[in-house]
């Protein structure tokens, strides 16, 4: 017993000595932070010291855990890796080859590059060059939105959720707002119509049923407490079969004759013609013409602009919303307005191809098929036997929680890899120098031409070639 304890004690002692030797071999923080490779990252002295300290802590942890290797080896490289990761953006561009045009997780609408640059410099956001005095932030977009939609007035806020909150807060607060039971929807996680109504301080009054609601249901529910009728486009789901929704114009007429407001959350919309079946949904101009007091929709869905919420409507109504205290909290900045103006100008000129989303939505199947053929050939040439390439059909989608179930037929390159599974290739494509996001189906990678910008095709070929080559090596 006694000898055993002594033996144990001596082992502990020896370990402690080893430990303290190991600890002593670690460099000082400043020395590590000033190593040439660490300095070469371009990080400030303060950041280098912070990273060196973190890596020294980690090294001490490894010694405590019994790691007997030289604690100095690879230490500077770890600091470099830590600094590089810390200083790299995590919001990086990707090639979207999924065929989903307005991909919510990929930043919704891809923007025209020139448009983004327009917002970078000092600009006439609230400056009138004519008078040299204060100008109107609202005027830039309003001029174009009214011309494009036929509405009397327009207002732009942070997103469509904000637009709905603002219209309800201005026109329905402390009143009852009527809404069909078929429209009490949840759109994209946190936008739930009943909760938004509660937030805006309106009393929700449900009318009709989930599948069928008539004008008479609204009519019977109108009392002296009613402030507005709200219509919400059930963007991300569809009631089919035994269903009825009244025409927007019918609700507008009912609202007008009862002196209450008709508010129409359209969700999405644009100012160019759309191919079938997308043309079945009401456009913003049609919603305005149908007599709504306010129409709202997102700037970064089908319109193909920046994240914002667009409100169109009657002059008095829109002005009342602009004066509401919330409008200041929900307003947009110059980057948004510059991109929006540029996109709206493209629509005004009829230059739809300049707006990436419009170009993608309207691309014809035959032109996509031709691009797919050429891309498949280039890929086959670059990648040898690492995969086979063929042209296939693609079921493309608008995405962004709109036009549920509306498939636009397109074309894709089907890549069947021979060096690894399609899933493994897809995963590695996401980690390449230019990340590529793809669909995997039946052991093949599908690259849909509709969402692949033509000027990124060469990058895509290189990315796939590099990715397949890494599997060939192992
Ligand atoms: C998308 C959508 C919203 C939310 O719009 P955001 O711009 O994402 O805030 C609200 N209502 C409808 C009907 C929608 O489709």
Description:
This protein has about 475 residues and is an alpha/beta fold. The protein folds into three domains: about 1-85, no CATH class; about 95-100 and about 365-474, Aspartate Aminotransferase, domain 1, CATH 3.90.1150; about 115-355, Type I PLP-dependent aspartate aminotransferase-like (Major domain) (Aspartate Aminotransferase, domain 2, 3-Layer(aba) Sandwich). It is built from 19 helices and 18 strands. It has helices at about 1-25, 30-35, 35-40, 45-65, 75-85, 115, 140-150, 160-170, 195-200, 215-220, 250-255, 285-290, 315-325, 325-330, 335-350, 355-360, 365-385, 420-430, 455-474, and strands at about 95, 100, 125-130, 135, 155, 175-180, 185, 190, 205, 225-230, 260-265, 295-300, 310-315, 385-400, 400-415, 435, 440, 445-450. The strands form five sheets. The chain has a seven-stranded mixed sheet, sandwiched between helices. Strands 2-14-15-18-17 form a five-stranded mixed sheet. The chain has a two-stranded parallel sheet with strand order 1-16. α12 links the parallel β11 (about 260-265) and β12 (about 295-300). α7 packs parallel to α15 (about 335-350). The longest helix is centred in the first third of the chain and has 24 residues, at about 1-25. The protein is globular, with a radius of gyration of 30 Å. The two termini are about 55 Å apart. The structure holds pyridoxal-5'-phosphate. Pyridoxal-5'-phosphate binds near residues 191, 235 and 298.
């Amino acid at each position: 017993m006694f000898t055993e304890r002594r033996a144990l004690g001596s082992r502990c002692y020896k370990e402690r000595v080893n430990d303290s030797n190991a600890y002593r071999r670690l460099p000082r923080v400043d020395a590590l932070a000033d190593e040439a490779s660490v300095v070469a990252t371009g990080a400030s002295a303060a950041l280098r010291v912070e990273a060196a300290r973190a890596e020294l802590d980690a090294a001490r942890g490894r010694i405590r855990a019994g790691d007997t290797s030289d604690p100095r080896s690879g230490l500077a490289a770890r600091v470099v890796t830590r600094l590089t990761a810390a200083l790299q953006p995590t919001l990086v561009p990707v090639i979207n080859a999924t065929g989903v045009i307005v991909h919510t997780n990929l930043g919704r609408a891809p923007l025209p590059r020139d448009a983004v640059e327009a917002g970078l410099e000092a600009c006439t956001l609230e400056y009138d060059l004519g008078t040299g005095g204060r100008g109107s932030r609202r005027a830039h977009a309003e001029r174009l939105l009214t011309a494009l939609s036929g509405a009397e007035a327009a207002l732009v806020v942070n997103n469509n959720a904000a637009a709905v909150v603002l219209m309800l807060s201005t026109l329905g607060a402390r009143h009852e707002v009527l809404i069909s039971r078929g429209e009490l929807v949840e759109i994209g996680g946190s936008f739930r119509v009943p909760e938004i109504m509660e937030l805006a301080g309106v009393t929700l009054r449900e009318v009709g049923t989930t599948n069928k609601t008539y004008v008479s249901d609204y009519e019977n529910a109108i009392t002296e407490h009613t402030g507005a009728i709200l219509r919400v486009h059930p963007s991300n789901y569809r009631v089919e079969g035994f269903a009825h929704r009244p025409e927007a114009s019918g609700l507008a007429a009912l609202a007008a004759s009862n002196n209450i407001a008709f508010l129409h959350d359209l969700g999405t919309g644009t100012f160019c013609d759309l191919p079938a079946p997308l043309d079945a949904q009401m456009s913003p101009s049609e919603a305005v013409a149908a007599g709504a007091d306010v129409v709202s929709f997102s700037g970064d869905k089908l319109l193909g602009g920046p994240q914002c919420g667009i409100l169109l409507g009657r002059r008095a109504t829109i002005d009342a919303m602009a004066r509401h205290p919330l409008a200041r909290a929900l307003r947009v900045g110059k980057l948004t307005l510059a991109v929006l103006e540029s996109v709206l100008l493209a629509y005004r000129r009829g230059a739809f191809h300049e707006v990436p989303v419009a170009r993608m939505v309207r691309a014809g199947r035959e032109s996509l098929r031709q691009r797919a053929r050429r891309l498949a050939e280039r890929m086959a040439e670059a990648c040898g036997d690492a995969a086979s390439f063929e042209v296939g059909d693609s079921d493309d989608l608008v995405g962004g929680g709109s036009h549920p179930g509306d498939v636009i037929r397109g074309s894709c390159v089907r890549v069947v890899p021979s060096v690894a599974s399609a899933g493994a290739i897809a995963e590695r494509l996401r980690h390449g120098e230019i990340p590529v996001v793809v669909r995997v189906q039946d052991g093949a990678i599908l690259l849909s031409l509709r969402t692949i910008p033509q000027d990124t095709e060469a990058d895509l070929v290189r990315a796939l070639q590099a990715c397949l080559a890494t599997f060939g090596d192992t």
